[in-house]
Design brief:
The complex is a heterodimer. Chain A is α+β, with helices and mostly antiparallel strands. Chain A is built from 7 helices and 8 strands, in the order αααααββββββββαα. In chain A, helix 6 packs antiparallel against helix 7 (267-292). The longest helix of chain A is centred in the middle third of the chain and has 32 residues, at 114-145. Chain B is mostly helical. Chain B has 2 domains: 1-76; 78-113. The chains are: A alpha+beta, B mainly alpha.
Chain lengths: 293, 131
């Protein structure tokens, strides 16, 4: 009886053994499970970002005017003004360089060179932190200095040429004083000033007289811009942040010699490498859509 | 990187850095050209703006191709893996066309409403008669 009882159990013994990748004996796509799933995660993430960027495009198409990126993003640290796209180009270079150091880390992983992996991963982490710091500065400048919020967009565009009736401080020009002129399509930023009487900050919407004789005040720009900017660059920044966190964990693991003892060696470094390159890849399109076009 | 020696792949990395850096720089210059920062008045021609936009978009796609195929080693994976990851993104072509078209249509509708609101009220709407 004992032999009959044990025989069927043998049939169910399909537990994976150490030599069987994916337990089917042969790896699908000749890739490890972890790497393939990282690719599919990145594909799904690409669709999330595409959804965001396409909604940006649709709203931009639907709006008669849109803030011009080279006007909105023309400030840099240390008091640099009127330098269109310079700071954000620097940010792009930081991400490209950190992507390149990540490639080097993966290469050293293939050679099982523990010190090399850790060295290049630390450089990658520094690049990522640099990018995050730059983004923090950019956000601070937009929120604290230029007063853009998720629901308020002070970057407007003139739809008709004319000249201002108020100066930069919002006070009427005196008789004989030269009035500032503007053309159709020119961008402006509505500033804020502290009102002593009311005790809080007020917008300065300058009055103007247009070419056709009508008068008006500076209008706020399309409302969606602030929300789109903060959510899309914020979502990308969150990816960079989590990338830095995972890079740090994996760099510490590599330094401790964990991967040297593993059967698949430094594959973990390859997987975080894929993720990190993807963050750079997404930035290519965020940069294109928000800053270049 | 079984296909390349260590020295070769190190050289490839420097090449990748140069390609991505130079393409990014060229993109920024073309963008500024299209916005009239390099040649004054260039921004007044729609053709300049559209051409610049098209060229930048193509250069960005090239950067994406380079990052996926070189840095992410897609060219060393089997072709079916590459296709299973890349082909689904073709859906985005539909999404881009459909949603941009839709956005453009919203703008047309808004313009239409503004236009109609500005028309003089010559014909008075018939007043509702009490029943």
């Amino acid at each position: 009886m004992a032999t009959i009882d044990t025989a069927p159990e043998k049939v169910h013994e399909i537990e994976p053994t150490a030599g069987d990748p994916w337990s089917g004996g042969k790896e699908p796509f000749r890739a490890s499970y972890g790497k393939l799933m990282m690719w599919y995660f990145l594909l799904s993430d690409a669709f999330t970002f595409a959804g965001f960027l396409i909604s940006y495009g649709a709203l931009r198409f639907s709006s008669p005017t849109w803030p011009v990126p080279d006007f909105v993003f023309s400030t840099a640290p240390f008091g640099v003004h009127g330098a269109p796209l310079i700071f954000v180009t620097f940010m792009s270079f930081l991400l490209i360089v950190s992507s390149v150091t990540m490639v080097r880390a993966v290469q050293e992983g293939h050679r099982e060179n523990q010190n090399g992996v850790v060295f290049w991963m630390v450089l990658t982490i520094i690049g990522g932190l640099g990018f995050l710091s730059c983004q923090a500065w950019e956000w601070t400048n937009l929120i604290a200095t230029e007063h853009m919020t998720v629901t308020t967009n002070p970057f407007g565009t003139h739809v008709i040429g004319g000249e201002y009736l108020d100066n930069e401080a919002g006070e009427p020009y005196r008789a004989g004083e030269a009035r500032e002129k503007f053309e159709v399509g020119d961008s402006y930023l509505i500033h804020k000033h502290f009102d002593e009487q009311t005790g809080h900050e007020e917008w300065i919407q300058r009055r103007f007289v247009a070419q056709d004789g009508s008068t008006g005040v500076q209008q706020f720009g399309p409302k969606a811009f602030g929300a789109l900017f903060f959510f899309i660059t914020g979502f990308h920044g969150f990816h960079v942040f989590s990338g830095v966190a995972f890079l740090t964990i994996i760099a510490i693991n590599a330094a401790s010699g964990l991967y040297a003892a593993r059967r698949n060696g430094y594959e973990m470094v390859e997987k975080i490498g894929l993720y990190w390159h993807f963050v750079d890849l997404v930035w290519v399109f965020v940069f294109l859509v928000f800053y270049l076009l | 990187m079984a296909h390349l020696t260590y020295e070769e792949s190190k050289k490839n990395v420097v090449r990748g850095l140069l390609i991505l850096g130079v393409v990014t720089l060229v993109e920024v210059l073309i963008s500024l050209l299209g916005k009239g920062h390099i040649i004054k008045g260039a921004e007044n021609y729609a053709i300049v703006l559209y051409t610049a936009g098209l060229v930048i978009a193509i250069l960005s796609l090239y950067k994406a191709y380079f990052i996926i195929y070189e840095f992410m080693h897609m060219k060393y994976e089997v072709k079916t893996l590459a296709m299973s990851v890349l082909l689904p993104t073709a859906l985005l072509i539909w999404a881009i066309i459909a949603f941009f078209q839709e956005g453009d249509s919203w703008k047309d509708r808004r313009d239409q409403i503004i236009e109609k609101n500005e028309l003089p009220a010559t014909e008075k709407a018939p007043t509702a008669t009490p029943r």
